[in-house]
Design brief:
Order of helices and strands: HHH
Oligomer: single chain
Distance between the termini: 41 Å
Structural class: mainly alpha
Number of strands: 0
Shape: elongated
Largest sheet: none
Number of helices: 3
Strand content: under 5%
Helix content: over 70%
Length: about 40
Amino acid sequence: GYYDTYSAYRFSSLDVNSRESACLTNFLLSDKCFLLELD
């Protein structure tokens, strides 16, 4: 529905920060964040 589309659009608009968010998530799940940053 409309809400799903709005959520998808809003989520896409946050892709600019997705790398930082992904790094933080990876850091919480495993210590591979620093490996990605150093690579």
